[in-house]
Design a protein that fits this description.
Largest sheet: 9 strands, antiparallel
Number of helices: 3
Number of strands: 9
CATH architecture: Roll
Structural class: alpha+beta
Number of domains: 1
Distance between the termini: 53 Å
CATH class: Mainly Beta
CATH superfamily: Electron Transport, Fmn-binding Protein, Chain A
Order of helices and strands: EHEEEEHEEEEH
Strand content: 35-45%
Length: 165
């Protein structure tokens, strides 16, 4: 391989989620998507990046320009989003590393046992990181210890994200 071909290209940028991400985050096929995490980054009160992991049962694409997020209401992630109104998502799909930047507002908190903070986020920018000489195969992956119970909870959370106004 010629060294000239190893030069990384600048990320491709767009202002809406591509179809592959809307479809992946549409709240369906939760059982098929177990084990794949989305990295969520916020900024903490000291100005440092704060990374957490959410599943497909905690993020819902409403359309190409909007997503909803469910996170523990007392988490650093919830506090950071509420304070700054900014969040980024990083995930691997379709052999690409996707980076999604969004502005977010807190919609409500759930009063159930889960104690979730629900956010609505407007997509501002989406970057596709790819090179000609390699493909992204996976992002962060994990194994659930109680798959049936967690997928049931995710299904409930997605229904809540769909219903909240």
């Amino acid at each position: 391989m010629n060294m000239d071909t190893l030069v990384q290209k600048a990320p491709e940028t767009q202002t809406q989620l591509p179809h592959v991400l809307v479809e992946y985050l549409d709240g369906t096929k939760l059982n098929d998507r177990v084990g794949e995490a989305i990295c969520v980054t916020t900024v903490d009160s000291a100005g440092w990046p704060h990374t957490s992991l959410l599943s497909v049962g905690e993020i819902l694409a409403i359309d190409a320009g909007h997503v909803r997020l469910a996170t523990w209401k007392h988490s650093g992630t919830a506090a950071n989003i509420a304070k700054t109104g900014r969040v980024s998502l990083v995930l691997a799909r379709d052999h690409v590393l996707w980076e999604v930047f969004a502005t977010a507002t807190r919609l409500t908190d759930t009063d159930d046992d889960q104690g979730l903070a629900l956010f609505s986020a407007a997509v501002v920018k989406v970057r596709a990181h790819r090179v000609d000489y390699a493909e992204v195969l996976t992002g962060v992956t994990y194994r659930l210890l109680d798959r049936a119970d967690i997928v049931k909870r995710w299904t409930s959370q997605i229904a809540t994200l769909r219903a909240v106004k």
